[in-house]
Structure formats: C-alpha cells, structure tokens
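Worked example 2:
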Amino acid sequence: MSRIGRLPINIPKGVEVKLDGSYVHVKGPNGSLDYSFSPEIGIRMEEGQLLIERPNDQPRIRALHGTTRALLNNMVVGVSSGFERILEVVGVGYRAEMSGKDLILNVGYSHPVNIPAPEGITFEVDTKTKQIKIKGRDKHQVGQIANDIRKIRPPEPYKGYGVRYLGEAVRRKAGKAGKMGK
C-alpha cells in the first residue's frame, strides 16, 4: 500500500468539497479549484476526511494512488491557506518593482521586463531585500510562474547575478587567472 496514498486528507473549516465520481470541486476562502481524476481510483468522503482507494496493485494504479492523494491535498491546502514561492534578485542595478498588479524586472537588459499577473496569482515585492513573493491557490501554477520569472535571468556562475529561488545554492566558477608578468 502506498504510504502517501493511504493517508487521509483532513478538510479544514471553511473548505467545501464536492465529489461527482472522479470529478472533484474544492471551494474555500482563497477561491475554488476543480480537477478530474482518473476514474480507476476511488475517492470518498467520510467524517470530514477524504479517503483515496485503489482497486488493485497494478504498477500504473499504484502510481496513480499516491499522485491522486497528493493532488487532492494540494487542492485543499491551496484553497484554505494558499502557496507561495520566494525569489531573490541578485546583482548591481538589478531590481524588481510593482506596476499595479504587474511585476516589472530590471535585470540587465536594455528594457524592463513586464510580467502580467495571471488570474489567481499575486506578486509582492520587497525592494529592501530584493525579494519577489509569488502567491496563489494552485501549487503547480505558482511553481510554474516562479520558474518562468527565474528563466528571464537565471543566476550566472561567475558573480552569481540573476534571479534565484530563496536559499538556492548557485555553484560558482573561478574567473580568469589573469596575465602573469613578463
């Protein structure tokens, strides 16, 4: 039995879950999410908990068991408390700022890079620490937006300039050895 798949998902107060076969709709204080799971995996609600069951031990079904539970848990956590990713901007003259709901990055290009906030995503910028917070209810979307922002100027290996995840270790290379005297 899958260690992840067999864990029940507790439904916090203020979160409403509707099951319609393999289609699940979760609604909470941060909005709502819906997803259609594989009909081969059983999802049932019992005493304020969601339980995920699998019919047999085929490898494909076993893989779906844990994945379904993880996705459902992310939906419940997302609509109740939400997810966030923090990026930091490192470099001389590099900065991030807000323009309405959009994020504007100045990261060494000849022009500022404008990133519009998609529906369900909010940006927060701390200009003092040069940090960008990406918040949202969908874990996948938050991670994808963070990755897209990081791709605009990934950290380079010589001075470490660029956009990186908070706490990300950037492998540094030694620079040129320099000229030896004649």
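The first helix runs from residue 59 to 80. The chain has two domains: 9-80, 83-165.
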